[in-house]
Amino acid sequence: MGDFLNVSSSLTGRRWVGPSIEIDRASEALEQDTTLPRALCQVLARRGVPAHEAENFLAPALRDLLPDPRSLRDMEKAAARFLEAVKNRQTIAVFADYDVDGGSSAALLLVWLRDMGLSATLYVPDRIDEGYGPNDAAMAELASKHDLIICVDCGTLSHGPIAAAKGADVIVLDHHLGGETLPECHAVVNPNRQDEDGALAYLCAAAVVFLMLVEANRQMREDGAKGPDLMAMLDLVALATVADVAPLIGANRALVRQGLKVMARRERPGLVALSDVSRMDTAPTSYHLGFLLGPRVNAGGRIGQADLGARLLATADAHEAQALADRLDQLNTERRDIESAVRAAAMEQAEERGLNAPLVWASADGWHPGVVGIVASRLKESTNRPAIVIGFDGDEGKGSGRSVSGIDLGASIQKLAAEGLLVKGGGHKMAAGLTVMRDKLEPAMERLAELLDKQGAGAIGPADLKLDGMLMPGAASLDLVNQLEAAGPFGASAPAPRFAFPDVEIRFAKRIGDNHLKITFSDGLAARLEAICFGAYDTPIGAALENHGGKRFHLAGRLDINTWGGRQAVQLRLEDAAPA
Fold first, then answer.
1. Closest C-alpha to 545, from 523, 519, 571, 527
2. 530: part of which helix (H) or strand (E)?
3. Which of 114, 212, 366, 460 is most buried by its number of CB atoms within 10 A?
4. CA–CA gap between residue 96 and residue 89 (Å, rounded)
């Protein structure tokens, strides 16, 4: 397969790769069989959707795609114990992880219970003082005052802390990789338990909690009672699914699509306040969840109070929602500043070690534990390699890792912990956390690099830029963008369509802020299209397009709708360019 538009090295050094011959043929056949526009058929063909399924794929119905909750082990037991607590007015505590998935999972339970006229205690551990997941002291304390503790988005590996919860029943609703044995408790519902078939491995914790509530409502109906409206809670499930980078396939597609519709009704005070401080002025998309709302909910757990996100998502009070959203927005700005300092230092260290190694890593004293995960993400993006970033406090380092597609980081980290090189560690394929002692740092990273190299991490080239096809500026209409959205939501494992605009001329170019670029381009005919390139001046794109001198370029990127003063226009989110 040749380089698309003959681009073997673009301005950012990437090779452009178009659809395979098979996908081209499939999209032509789809176009003939369905009368859908060519660009949409190219996206459907890439997703492997045959013509007879196209209609259903573009309108995913939750009732067709929602898995049977009872297909997960311990599910009926978990829901029955939960309902027993509700019926007998027992005291319930929710122990949640401090990220968006944990906060959304906790909020689902708190909102459901509130609809039933009950309240529960929310407990979110502090990232720095307590670290991830249940700990002995907190669990013992909660058990002394509660009949039931529900651990969400954590707990699958917490044998000791769950044993410390004497006198209370414990239910775990989680999705992190399970070990060979499960903690001894009332129920562990987790699609990533080792004795599950893995069919639902792609669900985030909030989706697991949602399924438990579906089962609880079903058991209530069998007793002739009616549970709360679950469809109205899908906004929380959608937010968690996108923010936790769960793959947007199967049931997740339908959960996110329906959840976005619920969110657009602006009924949840926390999400309304958050959308407003994020200056969102259009109906929410998965992009908004991942890049505007998610980071703000996360900011509390990263550098502020761990429970702010869950409290915001659960509150029914608009004033409280406003105050919490303002605080999270402010923390998010602080987080950005801390992150950029750590990022610069980590990048410098990683470059000294060499960016072609199977593992890119950096560590230092005093790096804030709340941002090491995001910085690992940035390192991973710029090197296309698995990355680990560790902050030391005394002799103990807490680190976070992010992986690239096809390389299972969680399993390798778990192996390292089993071999005694880490104090502890776990996670899933794409993300993991670890604790390491200073004297074990070098051998641990060396061993991890070796394990990742066996999976092929050292052989990955610079990320090719995959393109779905070509478009002319005149074809990029509002109608087309709306039709493409129907193939979404886009995100993890379901990348948004990316098109090349061949041989265009730059009619206008202007630097915006520090390093963004805004341009207008045309194919020399009547049609023009606007484009924005974020971070253009961090790469050679900014200078090349600003000083184009009349030269023509191929441009590549994703289409979206820009809403400005109530007017809608298509714009290209420019990702790469090459001289034509």
1. 519
2. strand 528-533
3. 212
4. 21
